[in-house]
């Protein structure tokens, strides 16, 4: 066996928030395989396994060259035995049998189809699958009562499973911004999520809204939703109020992936220019989130993603810095105090990390 000299091996820090991960990877065939196993684990409610596969995939995404030999994997972090076996199978045989059989299994196909319905999570899909439901038609004829989100999800299934383009995201941004400024002049709105990381398509469009005068933003979302509804632009919406509370010198809530901002999850009706035989609009999933200016930098950081990058930032904060990071705030547990900032750069600096620009957060 040929052993590559050390310089052929890569030094890589173990937290994804310590390294650059551009959009384009040299190792798509490996990362796609590992991501599929992660997705399967998520569908099976095996969170720990899913994260292990996602971390392994993220390491390969960050490698500056294509992996062609297993010796290149030596010394890389986050590659467990299972992930290494998958990578080796692909190096040696071009495919991983485990990935192939997972991908083509009835269960995986059905759960993917069912969770593709907006409002349907892994648990519900699994329950339906166990009852023998494997297609949308079977679901419709099953007599299950769907909640309003799921009804809308089913009705717009096709559109919501079509990628949203950057141009569509910007078109929606123009419409929403106009309404936001009508309701509250001086407001600011940022396109976050995958588009801010440089992606050209996404599964939804994420917007963050704020106002330079703290407090003025309160209640903004319900007025915006009323106006959008009056214009016939919302096919579905669910609005929630801000429920975030901070106590001096005490951590407000345990950090979690869900935040407590005022927000609206909606399905937007976007007019489209190109000719379609049936209709001149398409449905698009849109998230509108309102953050007070004092929390805006945290919100922008938290909503830019990727999901794994966010998870790694929070893990770094708690394990290495004894801090708790959320989309609202950064709390220093040893000093018992909140660390205030107005920019993403300062948050990285508080965390003792080099700044990673959004386009390099594609872990
Ligand atoms: P996409 O839409 O397929 O291009 O992918 P992303 O990266 O835009 O993912 P998405 O839209 O699910 O979420 C964007 C980011 O926002 C992601 O890093 C996680 C974060 N995020 C999503 N939902 C929530 C939430 O409920 N609370 C918080 N704090 N963050 C969320
Ligand atoms: Mg998104």
Q: What this model shows, in words?
A:
It contains 15 helices and 10 strands. By secondary structure, it is of the alpha+beta class. A 5-stranded mixed sheet has the order 2-4-7-6-5, sandwiched between helices. The chain is globular and about 60 Å long. The structure holds 2'-deoxyguanosine-5'-triphosphate and magnesium ion. The site of 2'-deoxyguanosine-5'-triphosphate has 17 residues, from α11, α13 and α14.
Proportion of residues in extended strands? 5-15%
Cα-atom radius of gyration: 22 Å
* Helix count, DSSP H or I runs of 4 or more residues: 15
Tell me the helix content. Answer: 40-55%
Number of strands: 10
Please trace the helix and strand order, writing H or E for each element: HHHHHHHHHEHEHEEHEEEHHEEEH
- Largest beta sheet: what is the strand line-up? 2-4-7-6-5
Poorly predicted runs of 5 or more residues: 1-5
- Tell the overall outline: globular
The hetero molecules present are: 2'-deoxyguanosine-5'-triphosphate, magnesium ion
The overall pLDDT, averaged over residues, is 95
The secondary-structure class comes to alpha+beta
The profile of the biggest β sheet is: 5 strands, mixed
Span of the ends, CA to CA = 32 Å
């Amino acid at each position: 066996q040929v052993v590559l000299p050390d310089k052929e091996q890569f030094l890589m820090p173990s937290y994804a928030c310590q390294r650059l991960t551009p959009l384009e990877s040299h190792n798509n065939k490996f990362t796609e395989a590992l991501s599929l196993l992660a997705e399967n684990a998520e569908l099976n409610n095996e969170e720990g396994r899913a994260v292990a596969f996602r971390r392994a995939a993220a390491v390969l995404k960050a490698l500056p060259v294509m992996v062609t030999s297993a010796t290149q994997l030596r010394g890389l972090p986050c590659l467990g035995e299972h992930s290494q076996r998958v990578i080796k199978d692909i190096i040696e045989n071009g495919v991983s049998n485990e990935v192939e059989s997972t991908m083509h299994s009835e269960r995986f196909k059905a759960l993917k189809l069912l969770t593709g319905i907006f409002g349907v999570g892994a648990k519900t899909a699994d329950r339906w699958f166990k009852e023998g439901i494997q297609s949308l038609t079977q679901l419709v004829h099953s007599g299950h009562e769907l909640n309003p989100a799921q009804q809308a999800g089913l009705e717009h299934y096709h559109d919501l499973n079509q990628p949203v383009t950057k141009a569509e995201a910007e078109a929606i941004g123009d419409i929403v911004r106009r309404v936001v400024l009508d309701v509250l002049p001086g407001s600011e709105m940022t396109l976050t999520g995958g588009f801010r990381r440089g992606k050209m398509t996404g599964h939804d469009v994420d917007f963050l809204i704020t106002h330079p005068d703290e407090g003025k933003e309160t209640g903004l979302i319900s007025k915006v939703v009323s106006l959008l509804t009056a214009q016939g632009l919302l096919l579905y919406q669910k609005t929630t109020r801000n429920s975030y509370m901070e106590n001096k010198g005490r951590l407000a809530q345990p950090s979690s992936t869900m935040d407590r901002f005022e927000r609206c999850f909606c399905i937007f009706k976007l007019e489209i220019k190109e000719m379609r035989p049936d209709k001149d609009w398409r449905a698009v999933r849109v998230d509108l989130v309102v953050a007070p200016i004092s929390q805006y930098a945290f919100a922008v950081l938290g909503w830019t993603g990727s999901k794994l990058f966010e998870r790694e930032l929070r893990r770094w904060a708690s394990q290495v810095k004894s801090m708790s990071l959320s989309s609202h705030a950064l709390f220093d547990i040893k000093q018992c105090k909140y660390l205030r900032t107005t920019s993403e750069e300062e948050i990285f600096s508080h965390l003792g990390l080099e700044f990673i620009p959004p386009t390099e957060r594609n872990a």
